[in-house]
Amino acid sequence: MTIGIPSPQKGKERKGLKTERSPLLPKKSQDVEGVHDGFNGASFSGAVFNLSTTVVGAGIMALPATLKVLGLVLGICLIVLVGLLTDASIDFLLRFSKASRAASYGGIMGDTFGRTGRMLLQMCITVNNFGILIVYIIIIGDVISGTSSNGVHHAGLFEEWFGVHWWSGRTAVILLTMVFILCPLVSMKRVDSLKFTSALAVALAVVFVVITAGIAIVKLFFIGGIHMPRLLPDVTDNASFLKLFTVVPVIVTAYVCHYNVHPINNELDEPSDMQAIVHTSLALCTVVYITTSFFGYLLFGGQTMDDVLANFDVDLGVPYSTVLSNIVRISYILHLMLVFPLIFFPLRLNLDGLLFPSGQSLILDNKRFILITTGLMGFVFLGAAFIPNIWIAFQFTGSTTAVILGFIFPAAIVLRDTFGISTKKERYLAFFMIILAVVSSSIAISGDIYAMVNKSDGGSPRS
């Protein structure tokens, strides 16, 4: 086989797989007439906003807690390292997709590993995005109705404003939010319909970061009450050592955006800009993550919760504390509501690909569209109602599907090297990604099991 040119047999195989070259989200030129009439291609800035919105989701809320476990130095270094590895893994996907002329993550997996590879990818995206959406709903419930952790109750917005009522309880809040706000958003059939909400979502995330940083700086230099945070982790026993590895999946989950890279690339006016767009988006998101982690941990110290938004129910010790706390919490739950459909779209499309691989386009079958959408929303509601906190959900998705999507699959594509284009440097980096992903995930899962066994035996694992 000539380098860079697929064999005739492989070409026939790809033609036979209807969904293999379909993007994980609808393209601008999909097989529906008139969907994108007058659409001449997405801009550089619009693509940066869309990719950044995919990255900056609920993961940012758990990052201050990772610094509580790792300390400032190790925590920030790990955030930067994972950001760099994510950038490299996306470069792998773009480079090999260009060689195979694949228009999606599923396409390049199908070209490299056949139908099995494509189906494994679809399953991983389904599980990963399902877990992320559960995290979103948990955070929305925590902020609006309140949460209790380690015996401490943190009041929600409704409890503070209206007192305790049946409709301000966690289950009622989650159900009403999903029915009246999220269901209308996810009922849209085109990602392009959400292009304006992406920019607004990024702006709301920036509001959260700016206010959190501002409060921490004012307290640090003018008011006081800020204690020096721990620079390095506090390792005293086996449990505390294993807990260090549980933060890796949390950070990896915060960076996973690979399933939306190809759809954004497909809509670009200048597809050659995609690599620069990825670099810009990940650099922006890394700055946002470091800023949020540093100032969130600086502000709350050892009291930092797994979901840092829950910490904003107390007096922050600055003027207009209540107003600022409310702005922070409201801005970020609105951000999550706007990002929710952007994560839901690939979840629905990939689940449809698994259940109905030979069916017509999902957007043409209203009955199937409504059935899958309703079923997924119901299961997300149940997951959020029974999973106690976001750390557990992040550990599950981060230890499994997130590392597979973000590192293992892109690295495996490089090592398989179907088109003979990988360099020695890329192969070494790919091998390092797989080793890092497997080792960190294995230890993280072992640490979770150890903590559960220890707790069931009457111990009290360190938090």
Task: Explain the overall architecture.
- By secondary structure, the protein is mainly alpha-helical.
- It has one domain (45-456): Amino acid/polyamine transporter I, CATH 1.20.1740.
- Helix content is 70%, strand content 2%.
- It is built from 15 helices and two strands.
- It has helices at 8-16, 44-55, 59-70, 72-100, 105-145, 157-162, 170-186, 195-223, 238-255, 261-266, 274-300, 321-355, 366-386, 390-416, 424-456; strands at residues 146-149, 152-155.
- It has a two-stranded antiparallel ribbon.
- Strand 1 and strand 2 form a beta hairpin.
- The longest helix is centred in the first third of the chain and has 41 residues, at 105-145.
- It is globular, with a radius of gyration of 22 Å.
- The termini are far apart.
Write the layout of secondary structure elements.
Layout: H1 8-16, H2 44-55, H3 59-70, H4 72-100, H5 105-145, E1 146-149, E2 152-155, H6 157-162, H7 170-186, H8 195-223, H9 238-255, H10 261-266, H11 274-300, H12 321-355, H13 366-386, H14 390-416, H15 424-456
Antiparallel strand pairs: 1-2
Helix pairs in contact: 2-8, 2-11, 3-4, 3-9, 3-11, 4-5, 4-9, 4-11, 4-14, 5-7, 5-12, 5-13, 5-14, 7-12, 7-13, 8-11, 8-12, 9-14, 9-15, 14-15
